[in-house]
TrEMBL record:
Domain of life from the UniProt record: Bacteria
Family classification: Belongs to the ABC transporter superfamily.
Stated name of the protein: ABC transporter domain-containing protein
Keyword ATP-binding assigned: yes
Amino acid sequence: MSDLQPPKRASYVTELSKRFGAVLNQRIGSLSKGNRQKIGIIQAFMHQPKVFILDEPTAGLDPLMQEVFFELALSAKADGASLFISSHNLGEVQKMCDRIGFIRRGKLISEQTIADLTASASQTFHIHFAQATPMLELKHIPRAKVTLNSPHSVTVRLQGDMSPLFAVLAHHKVRSLDRREVNLEEEFMRFYKDDKK
């Protein structure tokens, strides 16, 4: 279908091919998977549409080319385009999308903004204490899962209000506290865990 209308700017195709290091003068069948993927991306973007539907857009691309794709997609988004992306790489979804939908067995089971998903997701903290870990106090925090790593180190996974955790920490000497970023892959597993039973 890409031959139904010319690109808005012929120079844009040249610019895209340079950005991706794509070979435009060879038969598609003779190209590697990564190079075929580059050509597909160029075809998708060369008309500068307002709506993109992309299925696993970075499959076959090396990390450098994935970054080129992310820059291109985010630029199109900044110009007002809408991108619908189907991907099993949730890290790339988190990088590019404002909203996310989870599909299980052909049905949309959840759809929300990335911000809402992140806010409702569990937060994970790795805490290292100067003295023994106050396990009894930590275990009484509502909606917290506490894992003892060593006599002075603990991992706390907490959903909801974090103030009870910080109230406990205020009474103890903390050497370090690291908060792990919310990982969409963990949220994906939460939605799909029922399928494993």
